[in-house]
Design goal:
heterodimer, A: mainly beta, 6-stranded antiparallel barrel, 9 helices, 48 strands, B: mainly beta, 7-stranded antiparallel β-sheet, 4-stranded antiparallel β-sheet, 20 strands
Chain lengths: 765, 257
């Protein structure tokens, strides 16, 4: 639902609909008089059949507009008539207008040489998403340091977020000017500027701990927020800044908090060199009991609070840390202005210096963070500019977590829009471009109605309610295919031998005192290297950890060089590639070969994963007797059993019996309605329907004195979230309360409960 | 004036002779309606009205009577404007400019009208030598400047709120020296009930004051071609014909020249 402008009036019985259209026909944007316009968006279900159509897929909006051109232009005379550029339509009910389409003009035509009316054929503007992928999709598996710790997965929505960001659709602010570290945390841990890795990952029972929520803003846009797994100690993301900021930084941190007074999402800026102990300033965001969000700066060991100030609603926490005057000071943004400086009373342990390392951590699963940036602000003006840019930024993507954990990133190399479509289909979610031109992704939870309904459609708001039920989409066997990765793990004992994930195939010659860079491409395996690189003859670990061997001659002969002769450092470039930098510290040429002349430079990993075979799980009749089998290939997106089983169970539930579909429902127009909105349809008098529904198709059309809106609705079942909301509103907190409540509404048997959940509950919600 | 209609390009409008009584003015306002399952009717209306005049010329007339209309239909006169004199005596303002839609309503002659938006500027063509009366109602403080009027390139004359408190009527009369365009700018957000009335003759108006809704006159029109039925052709003089009702359709917008 789009937010309502000031003078809206959708519900007025007498309205004066109007529309405005701005189109670029080659001479820059011009406002043209609209004769008529129409635009439609419809979710098509990818591989899913019609009656589950609403549950996933993608939508490409299209429409047309008839406009009046005062100069009667044609391709041969008059102004420019170049199609292929942008066109925006805004429409309203007589007061303020709302955007309806951010489209591209596919064609312009004139039905007659005598008329000054031109028809524009429009389609959602996907030019940025159709150009060849500028950035391969890459994710980093954050594997823990020591063997025995479990990996954290990334969320499949990170694919959409990173592809979208490469095409210019940002759910969190892109790196601002002067940024030395940017950590979007949109489903993965990859730093957009700087580098990142997870340093501590507590042992958890399942490797699939994708602890993501989503945070909304006042425009209704969503972004993924990360809080790490629940329970126990929390993982930290250690980041290295791109270039060490020397005198002052602005820290920007988006935050989501669902509990009162809980711990904060924390960003700690480490001053000085890694490994140094020190009293590090820590920037935190937390929500207090009264609901306001505070920005705090504290120091690592000292419990004193440097500054504590209320953050303006809907805005990120923006903190300015400064140490130009030899003392650590901090101030917080209050929305366009700073609070006064608050200086840290000097204590001996406070470290002040260039910011090289930053830790990001969420203290508690009810508080999450996103869009962390550290911006180098050598001057006060740069700090003001960073604050204003962070607070004024408007999102161009609305992405929520897919709740599909992934370890192996999908194959890169497709056009971004195809990747987005594949990700939406593989996660049973839906992706589309909305009225403002933002990229929207909704997970399968949202499409099943996890959100509270935004509106109720009653008989007073519906012109008619046609419905149909058919057997076309009923399936008696459902098969779901997914590709779980194959893990290679090492035991946790001290002398464990890690798996070789890459080794050099040719001898590498390193000149005396020189450096050679080697690209280690793990192929389809993803893993995190075990470092440091030790000489192969090292008594302790040479055969367990990553190793090198060197000899003065290519055949392997000659004296064995000292253990410190070769130093190898590695930088992880993507989930399956490293750049190894080999440095020869001796005065003679060395070849990286072992005693027999075979090349020896090996990268090992305590944890590695390869794409596995496609696994098919099925429900329903066996293959030989099934008449109408439904095959859903979730491909490389679903990689764990629990998610695949859940999706199979849901699809089975949706296709075992014919389900009613509401199509071509003409409603009293409300231009705020959007694809993906959950509404309640209540018609006790005619059809008897009382149900939650998802808007899976919207068609708006306007002409003089007329505005029509037609919806396609997918009927939803009540979810647990609805019951939860309803009971919370009714004051039911404990089981005793629930028992008393159900008695009071006359629910005694399970049949009663069933009827209660299906009918009475829907009206209440 | 001996005709109820004046037609022609700005600066050269002449009376349309021989117009019979019963000159029809049809108004069409596009709209649609939707009746819901619950029986509630929702009406959507267009913001503007399109008007069409049908003028009947006296029977058995000569071509001279219709020469102006025929030349207009043939496109020889350029941009055509039609002044409906009866409407001009009521209120020449465009309908959307006489009052606004939002804000605290002000009582105008008993009607609660919302104030016009501050900064509204309206252009109305006037005749030279004819007196016009501009009236409005304001709740602005006494002697505050609420707007201005400007005739052609003459210096603008400010409009001042009259003395007193509450909703008061302000009046200004003007007589352009030659056919020219009047620009009325309202700078205050507390003005409504605007009216520009054309004098019947001299300084006599059709009424003593009050407010009537805007009639959007003069407006641009397009004239359809003239059909005729020849009744008599004598050996000398023009033939005498019955001319079909002539349709003049309003085009474009008013308020901006």
């Amino acid at each position: 639902m789009q937010p309502e402008p000031a003078t809206w009036g959708a519900g007025d019985p007498v309205t004066t609909p109007d529309a405005a259209l701005v189109v670029d026909l080659g001479d820059g944007p011009e406002a043209l008089e609209v004769v008529s316009w129409d635009y439609a968006r419809d979710l098509t279900g990818g591989s899913l059949p019609g009656q589950v159509r609403g549950a996933s897929g993608f939508a490409l909006g299209s429409g047309s507009a008839a406009v009046h051109v005062a100069d009667g232009r044609t391709p041969w005379a008059g102004g420019s008539t170049l199609p292929g550029r942008s066109c925006t339509i805004e429409a309203g009910h007589g007061g303020d207008r709302l955007p309806q389409a951010a489209a591209q003009v596919r064609s312009m035509s004139a039905g007659s040489a005598l008329s000054a009316e031109r028809t524009l054929s429009l389609e959602d503007d996907l030019r940025a998403l159709r150009s060849p992928a500028a950035q391969a999709v890459s994710g980093i598996i954050p594997l823990g340091w020591a063997a025995g710790t479990t990996p954290l997965s990334t969320d499949a929505a990170s694919v959409i977020a990173s592809v979208g960001a490469a095409a210019g659709f940002h759910a969190v602010p892109p790196p601002l000017s002067g940024c030395v570290l940017s950590l979007p945390l949109q489903g993965d841990y990859v730093a957009a500027v700087g580098s990142s890795q997870v340093v501590y990952n507590p042992p958890a029972s399942s490797p699939w701990h994708a602890a993501y929520g989503w945070a909304g803003d006042d425009k209704g846009a969503r972004r993924i927020a990360w809080s790490g797994p629940a329970g126990g100690s929390r993982p930290e993301i250690e980041c290295r800044t791109d270039s060490a900021a020397a005198t002052s930084v602005v820290v920007v941190m988006g935050h989501l908090s669902v509990a009162d007074g809980s711990w904060a999402a924390r960003v700690a800026c480490t001053m000085g060199e890694p490994g140094e102990l020190g009293d590090w300033p820590r920037v935190m965001a937390y929500r207090s009991v009264d609901g306001t969000v505070h920005a705090r700066v504290r120091t690592e060991f000292d419990a004193s609070t440097l500054i504590d100030s209320t953050t303006p609603a809907g805005k990120p926490v923006v903190v300015h840390l400064d140490w130009t005057s030899g003392q650590l000071r901090a101030r917080v943004s209050t929305g366009g202005a700073w609070t006064a400086w608050s200086a840290y009373s000097p204590a001996t342990l406070v470290k002040i210096g260039p910011v090289a390392r930053v830790f990001v951590r969420s203290e508690h699963e009810s508080v999450a963070t996103y869009g962390v940036q550290v911006i180098d602000t050598p001057t006060g003006a740069a700090a003001d500019a960073a604050r204003d840019a962070a607070e004024a930024w408007v999102s161009s993507a609305s992405i929520e977590p897919a709740r599909v954990p992934m370890v192996i990133p999908p194959a890169p190399g497709r056009a971004p829009w195809e990747t987005v479509q594949a990700a939406a289909a593989g996660t049973l979610g839906a992706a589309w471009i909305d009225e403002r031109g933002s990229l929207v992704y909704r997970s399968r939870d949202s499409l099943r109605g996890a959100d509270a309904p935004v509106q109720t459609l009653r008989v007073d708001g519906l012109a008619d309610l046609p419905w149909s039920v058919s057997t076309d989409d009923v399936a008696d066997r459902v098969q779901v295919s997914y590709a779980p990765p194959v893990w290679s793990t090492a035991s946790s004992s001290a002398d464990a031998e890690f798996h070789v994930v890459w080794e050099a195939t040719e001898p590498i010659r390193v000149p005396a005192g020189g450096t050679v860079e080697v690209l280690a491409d793990l192929g389809t395996t993803v893993g995190r290297g075990a470092f440091p690189f030790l000489p192969a003859w090292d008594a302790l670990m040479g055969w367990s950890w990553s190793s090198w061997a060197a000899a003065p001659s290519p055949g392997g002969g000659g004296t064995q060089p000292p253990d410190t002769a070769i130093q190898v450092t590695a930088v992880q470039r993507s989930a399956s590639s490293y750049t190894l930098t080999v440095r020869n510290t001796t005065a003679g040429v060395l070849y990286l070969v072992d005693g027999t002349g075979a090349p020896h430079l090996r990268l090992r990993s305590p944890y590695a994963a390869r794409p596995g075979q496609l696994v098919t799980i099925a429900s329903g009749l066996t293959e030989d007797v099934a008449v109408n089998a439904l095959d859903v290939d979730l491909g490389s997106y679903v990689q764990d059993d629990a998610t695949a089983q859940e999706m199979l169970a849901w699809i089975t539930g949706m296709v075992t019996a014919p389900l009613p579909v509401l199509e071509d429902v003409e409603v009293v127009p409300d231009l705020r309605r959007q694809l993906g909105d959950v509404v309640t349809v209540v018609d006790p008098d005619h059809t008897g329907v009382r149900s939650k529904a998802l808007i899976v198709g919207v068609r708006n059309a306007g002409r003089v004195g007329s505005l029509t809106q037609t919806l396609r609705l997918a009927v939803l079942d009540p979810t647990f979230n609805d019951l939860d909301r309803y009971l919370a509103a009714a004051g039911v907190v404990t089981f005793n309360d629930l028992d008393a409540h159900l008695d009071a509404v006359g629910v005694v048997t399970f049949d009663d409960l069933d009827a209660y959940l299906s009918t009475a509950l829907v009206e209440e919600i | 004036m001996s005709s109820a209609f004046m037609l022609g390009p700005l600066g050269a409008m002449v009376e349309v002779p021989g117009v019979q009584r019963g000159a029809a003015r049809a108004t069409t306002r596009a709209g649609s309606e939707l009746v819901t399952l619950g029986g509630v009717r929702y009406v959507q209306r267009a913001g503007r009205v399109q008007r069409a005049w049908t003028l009947q010329v006296s029977p058995w007339t000569t071509p001279e009577t219709v020469r102006w209309l025929q030349a207009a239909a043939q496109g020889l006169l350029g941009d055509l404007w039609l002044l409906d004199v009866a409407s001009a005596r009521a209120n020449m303002f465009p309908s959307w400019a006489t009052a606004g839609v939002t804000g605290t309503r002000i009582a105008v002659d008993g009607m609660p009208l919302a104030p016009v938006p501050a900064g509204q500027e309206v252009e109305i063509p006037l005749f030279g030598g004819v007196e016009y009366r501009l009236t409005g109602v304001t709740t602005a403080t006494a002697a505050a400047t609420i707007g201005s009027t400007e005739v052609g390139s003459d210096p603008s004359v400010p409009l001042l709120a009259p003395a007193g408190a509450g909703a008061r009527v302000f009046t200004e009369t003007l007589t352009p020296g030659a056919d020219d365009v009047l620009t009325v700018t309202i700078s205050s957000a507390q003005v409504t009930g605007l009216r520009l009335a054309q004098a019947v003759s001299g300084s006599t108006y059709a009424d003593a004051g009050g407010w009537l809704p805007g009639e959007d006159t003069p407006c641009r029109v397009v004239v359809d071609d003239v059909g005729r039925a020849l009744q008599s052709l004598l050996t000398t003089g023009h033939g005498r014909s019955d001319y079909d009702p002539i349709l003049l359709r309003e085009v474009g917008t008013t308020g901006a020249i």
